[in-house]
Fold these 3 entries.
Entry 1:
Amino acid sequence: MAAKPLVGASAVPVKLPLAYYYGLPQSDDNPKLFKRLLSRLAVAATSRLAEDIDVKSAGMLIDTGGVPVGARVTAHYDFVAHIVSEFSVNVIVVLGSERINSEMQKRFAGQTTSVGETITVVGLDKSGGVMERDEAFMQSVRESAIREYFFGDAKMTLSPFTQQVDFAAVSIWRINEAPSTTSADSGGITYDEGETHMDMLEKAEPSMVMQNCVLAVAYASVHDTPDTIHDANVMGFVYVADVDEKRRRLRILAPVSARLGDRPLLWGSWPEHMVNLLI
């Protein structure tokens, strides 16, 4: 989740992109972590708006992602409500679904934002000829975006760096899915500051499972607590090109030639493993 695009090649340079790494395929895989990161993003984004009166008056456009059908739908309605609350959203646009539009109308009828504005729900039809994108297509788009992040595109070529790193020189934290009893809770999840971090992150040792994975570089110190690490925004991403368990070394592809040992790395199950970028 990001307040600005975080791809590598861009015709317009992006200054200070603000991004947080969730690292799981679905928002309800760990509702507690997803909501926590949404709240962190909201605080940071609204703070930046407060510093610029012109940007604040222009407002903010938030893409919430799709709402699925079936047993998971209630949790996703709860995520939308959380976004509306945290970002003080005053207009909700529902595209191409009468069912979701009706649910949003009922849920937000008569409600106002934290600054007293009425919340309005607007339903729009999809354009004619619109087709659903299947998972194979979306995976191809993700792989293309990752390749562009490191190497650029036809208009802008980038030169990433490869480096050999000892297992002992990196600090890697695995992002956990929530227990099944938690992820199935359709009533929504709230974060309790007194709860342990183990349902968010756990320390991980480098292994072959990480090969061809993308890891997020957290804007934190390796000496920080797990709570601080999973709350940190992202500096960028690296790609694990090879894992040599015998020599206990990783071959890492990075956008710049910085030392990885200074920053903790976040490892999630999304985006999924991809073909070797260095072939």
Entry 2:
Amino acid sequence: MTASNSTGGDAARPITVIRGDGIGPDIVDATLRVLDRVEAGLDYRFHDVGPAALEAGDELIPDATLDSIAETGLVLKGPVTTPSGKGYTSVNVALRKRFDLYANVRPVVSLPGVVSRYENLDIITVRENTEGMYSGEGQTVSEDGSRAEALSVITRDESERILRFAFDLARERGRRKVTLAHKANIMKSTSGLFLEVGREIAKEYPDLEHDERIVDACAMRLVMNPEDFDVIVTTNLFGDILSDLCAGLVGGLGVAPGANIGDRCAMFEAVHGSAPDIAGRNIANPTSVILAAALMLDHVGDSERAGRIRTAIRAVIAEHDRVTPDLGGEGTTDSFTDAVIERL
């Protein structure tokens, strides 16, 4: 499906909007209402992937969607389910590879009013997004089902790219420290190369503190003393795990946005699943996608509107105003969004 809704006149910036499936359409539509309220100046190009595309008789990732992403270079995406069964690959992984979205950025910030074990946390996980064990390369299973293999490849070029991205991000955002998470004590070739490159890159940023943590010890330290962390950079699989752990420290995936950034394209999304059990019930929390939209505005240089959106979200949750059931309230997706819009 392709449609357009301009919010900024002739000068509107085109973006590809993928509403996703399950609760995706509800929370993406809520986010577009917020973007319209702040007059973000965006021209929405609606396209499908995943189950929504298959139901429309198209491919899992239609050519029209790929063309739109290539043209706009900017994507706002709701959660997408990978259909069960052989032959279906992860839509998220496929899009990251197709558009070389090498940096996965997952910030988590404590929000007053969200039940969590900690307060005043502000941690960014930067995850290499294109290689390593999570990339899906070399996956084989023997004919008798008794042996399975997968290939993990780490390259110097990709390690340099993600590590420099993380250090640049820390510097640009006024951060104090970058932590390199690795498993070089056991995975001496792959994780060892990543750590070696990290040490080299760190020398180029004398204004930033850096430390190194073995990934399992890093996970333990995050649970015990999360205030020790500022920016974490790591490889694909480790980053997938640690970023979810960090989300849990501030209340869960429902309040954690995500960004996938490349040199020519960027995709901003909810990091949680499509929650089909509550789809269409108007009770899904749109915070993750709304905060992802704020990241998108930061990316295009509109930090003023991004800041207004974050301030409104914080106020609504802190005041427990019409919040959704997962936040302990009796509100709906619509009422929560109304509360945010009123504060804008």
Entry 3:
Amino acid sequence: MSLEAIQVGTRTIGPDHEPFVIAEMSGNHNGDLERALDIVRAAADAGAHAVKIQTYTADTITLDVDSPMFRLSADHPLWPNRRLYDLYTEAHTPWDWHEPIFALAQELGMLGFSAPFDPTAVDFLHGIGVPMIKSASSEITDLPLIRSIAATGLPTIISTGTATMGEIDAAVRAARETGNERLVVLACTASYPAPPEASNLRGIPVLRDALDVQVGLSDHTLGIGASVAAVALGATVIEKHLTLDRADGGVDADFSLDPGEFASLVRETKIAWQAMGKARIGPKEIEAEGLRFRRSLFVSRDVKAGEKVSADNVRSVRPADGMPPDSFRDIEGRVFREDVPLGTPMSLDLL
């Protein structure tokens, strides 16, 4: 299956292009615009292709209610028993920060975009000219929201954490109803952090072939191994959280990469993509010198005319200019017709 490349600003997303790596800021700005801008700078220094934020307020994503339904579980690894309204108040990115964040990203050669969580956020982002847009995992069953995102005509990313195949298919169909075919589906495990064994990366080619879309990975595991493996399985987009320093704390710090780790992510995913090469077996142009130094039969000491070929005077050695090593059994015992010096490639003309 050949998937069409997707052009986003100056970047191209597709199997024939290096992985498109997104630095997710989320709430790692810790409520400080200068820290947010420093994260953008760190993303650029690390080689990220895009910086992503999230567009919501506590009131657009949940209700100011205190009941068990509106709290996280008591055993949640990062935010035990937190009230949703309080968590989103802490983590949200003020809407008046969006333009300076995106302007700096563009100045530094990256794309800046966001995930909206309600129609007012979609309108806001479209109005300020973002180059692409994302639907978050928990919104995958909000098909009206997905339609409104895709209806902007912008390249649309759909994250799939928690979703069944049927739900993912419904979301992609909803996006396509708007006429938008510039879609990327992200495999995702919506656990923070996500254990590697829960990643099920073998599902990436399944999603790609079943939905006829490009597939990437929204990676919440620790480290970069899962992202590198995802590229080997065909992921064209990698999204990973970035923070300046995990020790600084913040709602997402524990499962975010620091700038040095993010630079490794960009480097190693590109190497994984380069190493994929083509589905062909055989010598490669770059192996020409190696082909010269395969083994072959050579005269291994000075011999006189009339001597018989034996393991004492003909050996399999490098380079490859003589007869194939397996031909020794066909010539063993035959007679040299002339004197032959050490280091002569073995050939039938000598016998």
